[in-house]
Amino acid sequence: MVTLEKGAGERESPSSPTLDLDDIQATVLRYRPEPYFGTHVLLRVDDVQGGREFLRRLSPHIDSAAGWWNAGDAWLGVGISYAGLEALGLPDGSLQSFPEAFRAGMAARAEQLRDLGENASGNWDFPFGTGHVHIGVTAFSDTAAKWRRTVAVAREQAIGFSGVTIIHMQDFGAQPGSLNPFGYKDGIGQPAIEGSGVDPLPGQGRAIKAGEFILGYPGETGFAYPMPQPDMLGRNGTYVGFRKYQSRVGTFNRFLQANAGTPEERELLAAKLVGRWRSGAPLTLAPGADDPLLGEDSQRNNDFDYSTDARGRQVPLGCHMRRMNPRNARLAQLTDVNLHRIIRRGTTYGAPYDPDALSEEEDEVPRGVYFLFISAKAMATLEFLQGEWINDGNFAGVGDERDPMVGLQPDGAVFSIPQAPVRRRIHGIDTFNVLRGGEYLFMPSLSALKWIASLS
Ligand code: HEM
What ranges does the record give for the region Disordered, renumbered to this chain (predicted)? Predict the structure, then answer.
């Protein structure tokens, strides 16, 4: 019997896992703890032998997904970019077996990702897009003490020999109430995964075939996605879209003030942009007023669909959450929504949300979110979401409107809020979260990590 802890919801499940949890990295399935503390460490491989030695030292400390439902703990995960796999001297045949988008790298996929204008790689923070990010190690923890110990373990493996250099470290986490930089509770909506050993939470929908998220298993079409070769390199691995956002809190607060007269109206507008109140309570279940207890309750806070809200009068058709998971909403462009689900590990960094931060300078105070978007076809999933569901609105019947939270907004962008008798069109939508970097990473299984480390 399995009981999920905080963050994933408290529940029991009779299912036995059918996935090879001992070989899959914990980060793929384990939910972010609550509260959470952590660090992203980015490294460059300076020579082949040194890089392999680092992986040899690190791999015993990378946690498996066995018992992933015990959310409260500390663990390390690792991903490797294509440039990293080259620097580690993978055989040519293996390198060529990776998908083209992964080989090109995130910066080169700007057109497909719509990472243009202020989101373009020319504006990214070091070391993103330089070709020097070879290995990314992330430490997650539920206490500050365990976090420090876990990061120290990761660092120790890189110290004392030449071969790898730490080129960037970023701490994250532990906002009061685990709120994101705009003050919203996040990390709620996640796909349930077949064979992972835990039944879906109420409203989570049916479990999605594991092959959508982990290589080597059948996906929603009944077939497994192609794996990097040899099979033992690909199986139980997955891909990660790693993205750094800077949250422009001053711009966001000024937008709320300009378009809503009272604090209550501002909260409602903030809820309409996302589809949930900042407490996490979904607008579908709490359309008129916030319900913080509902927001906290993982048995209830995801238990809804859009069948009674076809016109978007409760949850706007173009809001962030309805775009990112339209559930059973009728779409203008037919697609199977279960082919576009993604696992998210959002990690908030910087100062907590400040509702009184209004100046332009506040936009540049370092704070935002590093995301790990995980899927067995992460590049295709992310590129689809960015291109079709975030930076366009036709699929949802809202024309050229873009996702108000994460879209790259043109001048004069608007956001429609359906209501009777006439819809409200809100002006002044800006690019509230600016992309400041990103990399495509391959997250190998534990056995594949050892295989890479032992290449000669
Ligand atoms: C800094 C940028 C972003 C912010 C501030 C943000 C914020 C949020 C918030 C507040 C929620 C609702 C709570 C929850 O379900 O966790 C949410 C849900 C979600 N977001 Fe984002 N998000 C960001 C970027 C993205 C991007 C780039 C993607 C996809 C590529 C994405 C995909 C999703 C998904 C799939 C959901 C869950 C929808 C559901 O299952 O109903 N988000 N996000």
Answer: 288-309
Q: Where are the domains of the chain?
A: 2-244+439-453, 246-438
Atom of ligand 1 nearest to the CA of 368: 1
Between the CA of 132 and the centroid of ligand 1 the distance, in Å, is 28
Q: How confident is the model at residue 336 (pLDDT cuts 50, 70, 90)?
A: confident
Contacts of 246 (CB under 8 A, 6+ apart): 363, 364, 366, 367, 368, 433, 434, 436
Ligand 1 pocket check for 312: Cβ under 6 Å? no
Looking at residue 175, its pLDDT comes to: 67
3-state secondary structure 433-455: EEEEEEEEEEECCHHHHHHHHCC
Q: Does the beta carbon of 245 sit less than 6 angstroms from any atom of ligand 1? A: yes
Residue 34's pLDDT is 87
Q: Measured in angstroms, how far is the CA atom of residue 321 from the centroid of ligand 1?
A: 6
373 lines ligand 1 (CB under 6 A): yes
Q: Cα separations (Å) of 313 from 319, 416, 423?
A: 11, 10, 9
pLDDT in tens, 78-113: 999 999 999 999 999 999 999 999 999 999 999 999
Distance CA 61, CA 151 (A): 11
- Nearest-CA residue for ligand 1 atom 6 is 405
Q: Is the CB of 44 under 6 A from ligand 1?
A: no
Q: Is 319 in the pocket of ligand 1 (CB under 6 A)?
A: no
Q: Is the pLDDT of residue 13 over 60?
A: no
User: What pLDDT is recorded for position 71?
Assistant: 63
pLDDT tens for each residue of 219-228: 999 999 999 9
Q: Is the CB of 389 under 6 A from ligand 1?
A: no
17-44 residue pLDDT tens: 999 999 999 999 999 998 999 999 999 9
For residue 433, give the ligand 1 atom closest to its CA.
1
Q: Alpha carbon of 190 to those of 27, 183, 425: distances in Å?
A: 13, 19, 30
Distance, in Å, from the CA atom of 134 to the CA atom of 46, rounded to the nearest integer, reads 10
CA 322 to ligand 1 center in whole angstroms: 10
Helices (H) and strands (E) in the chain, counts: 14, 12
